[in-house]
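Need a sequence for this fold. Nothing fancy.
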């Protein structure tokens, strides 16, 4: 099986799971936190999409969808705020305020479309290209893609869990 087929399937699942987790939620559900320091569903969906957008744009040497399409406003953030959420404090988490489920799903759909286009253009030589020499062994395109998939799936699981807690509260 072709590695691109597996990668495409994985990123398509990220998009589909984002839609399923967000389905039917209102803005208050996106912001609900099971405790004052927990990450809400909206932040988790924003963060996993920001990481995907940031990492794939860098890998493909393209502008992020976040910047190109001005998604910051739909998450209550300022223009030029390119933060991806890594290491956020509780206060920083609280500043990410998606206006609706459509913001979370729409941003993921836009990033998924970009991601699938990037994947379609890759060949085996591209997948083996080293993009980060600060690690031992150096990180290749395919390793970075698998890392992004792992991170996004972990956060989707967290978002699904928080949704279950929200529905049972």
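Here you go.
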């Amino acid at each position: 099986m072709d590695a691109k087929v597996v990668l495409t399937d994985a990123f398509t699942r990220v998009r589909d799971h984002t839609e399923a987790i967000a389905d039917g939620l209102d803005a208050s559900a996106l912001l609900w936190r099971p405790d004052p320091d927990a990450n809400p569903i909206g932040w988790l969906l924003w963060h996993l999409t920001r990481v995907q957008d940031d990492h794939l744009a860098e890998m493909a040497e393209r502008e992020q969808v976040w910047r190109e399409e001005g998604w910051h406003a739909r998450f209550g953030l300022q223009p030029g705020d390119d933060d991806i959420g890594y290491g956020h404090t509780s206060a920083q988490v609280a500043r990410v305020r998606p206006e609706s489920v459509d913001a979370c799903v729409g941003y993921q759909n836009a990033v998924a479309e970009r991601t699938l286009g990037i994947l379609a253009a890759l060949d085996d030589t591209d997948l083996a290209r080293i993009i980060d020499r600060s690690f031992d062994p150096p990180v290749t395109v395919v390793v970075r893609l698998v890392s992004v998939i792992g991170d996004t799936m972990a956060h989707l699981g967290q978002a699904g869990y928080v949704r279950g807690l929200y529905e049972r509260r």
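For context: The domain at 3-168 is CATH 1.20.120.450 (Four Helix Bundle (Hemerythrin (Met), subunit A)).
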